[in-house]
TrEMBL record:
Protein name: Pyridoxal-phosphate-dependent enzyme
GO biological process terms on file: alpha-amino acid metabolic process
PANTHER family: CYSTATHIONINE BETA-SYNTHASE (PTHR10314)
Organism: Hyphomonas jannaschiana VP2
Pfam families: PALP (PF00291)
SUPFAM superfamilies in the record: Tryptophan synthase beta subunit-like PLP-dependent enzymes
Occurrences of domain Tryptophan synthase beta chain-like PALP (ranges): 14-294
């Protein structure tokens, strides 16, 4: 049988992720917030889709490949390493010192080579890993998949994640983190091709400048992997400009603790920031709204480093005051359970 890159013939359990509904009470209004649970993909994140999409289209075009190399903040590298292991393809993942312990361990456990890129003076972490991945591909003759510039990255979301989400629409707004821009560009392209009154909103910390200039001038280091990016996205330039919501990392960490303590959600850190951005947007509405959040991954990637790494990175005091401030906001959230047919089937 010829190799097929069609998403419907993906041999892994990627896609058809659950959509979990929450009722959100703010003031006198009750809103509906839907969480797209990308953590339920086989290798644990939204990047499973991108890794399969880019790799399968590349194989379809070039024929069988022996080894690939690419840059990643962690989740894509994890997915690519696992997929390559199953397909008997060698993989080199170039990441940064900020990679989570979980993703680093998974990449190695899948038999891939993990290389940490050191930025040169003035170079961002993201640019350093792209540079090194290109250099390794040239030296070793492996295929450079180039997710950060490859149009197949946003195409994975335009042709797969977005239509899957909008099948459960309509939504007044859809929220995601900008990160390196693949998801948001794919959603922007989908909305351009299928116009509807849905606002696209990107949530990211102050020091991120993936699409628009950062208020802080993009100088502070990012504290949460892939929550925003310090390099202008190769996929920037979509029109209309997406809505931009800034969310600080201390508030994000506090919300992560509260959501987990109250067993409301098992999403990861950037995803928690995205939910907070949606709550902030909902608080500005004057009528009930229905919104969706693309939640890139799950809590298992962060729980082991919350105390040792993430809370110290934002400071104990800002974290604790955010806990106090957020507790009543989280009290207004009630989980209603899965809404889409795929999720209901998975629950049985
Ligand atoms: C934690 C996290 N959030 C969000 C994203 C989405 O990033 P992008 O849209 O650039 O693919 C990623 C991608 O690596 C991620 O790891």
């Amino acid at each position: 049988m010829p190799f097929s890159s069609a998403v419907a013939s993906c041999p892994f359990k990627i896609g058809h992720t659950p959509l979990t509904a929450y009722q959100v009470r703010i003031g006198n209004l009750t809103h509906e917030l839907l969480v797209k649970e990308e953590r339920c993909n086989e290798f644990g994140s939204v990047k499973d889709r991108v890794a399969w999409y880019i790799l399968s289209k590349t194989i379809e075009k070039m024929g069988p490949v022996k080894s690939v190399v690419d840059a990643s903040s962690g989740n894509y590298g994890n997915a690519l390493a696992c997929i390559c292991q199953r397909m008997g393809i060698g993989a080199t993942i170039v990441s940064s010192a900020s990679i989570s312990a979980h993703n680093a361990a998974q990449i190695k456990a899948a038999g891939a080579r993990l290389v940490i890129a050191e930025p040169k003076p003035g170079e961002t972490a993201n640019a350093a890993r792209m540079r090194l991945a290109g250099e390794i591909a040239a030296q070793e003759g492996s295929v450079f998949l180039d997710q950060y510039s490859n149009p197949l990255n946003p195409a994975a979301h335009q042709n797969w994640t977005a239509p899957e989400l909008f099948a459960d629409g309509p939504f007044d707004a859809v929220f995601m983190t900008s990160s390196s821009g693949g998801t948001s560009r794919g959603f922007a392209d989908y909305l351009k091709a299928h116009p509807r009154p849905t606002q696209l909103c990107l949530v990211e910390p102050e020091s991120s400048c993936a699409f628009l200039d950062a208020p802080s001038g993009c100088t502070d280091k990012l504290k949460i992997p892939a929550f925003g990016s310090q390099r202008r996205s190769s996929f920037a330039g979509m029109k209309p400009d997406p809505g931009m919501i800034r969310m600080d990392e201390a508030t994000t960490l506090a919300a992560f603790t509260l959501l987990h303590e109250r067993q409301l959600s098992k999403v990861g850190l950037s995803s928690t920031g995205v939910i907070l951005g949606a709550l902030e947007w909902l608080a500005r509405q004057d009528k009930p709204a229905r919104v969706a959040c693309i939640c890139a991954d799950g809590d298992e990637r962060y729980l082991d480093e919350i105390q040792s790494r993430y809370i110290p990175s934002v400071g104990q005091e800002p974290y604790e005051s955010a806990l106090q401030r957020l507790a009543p906001v989280i009290d207004g959230i009630k989980c209603l359970g899965p809404v889409n047919a795929d999720a209901k089937a998975a629950a049985h």
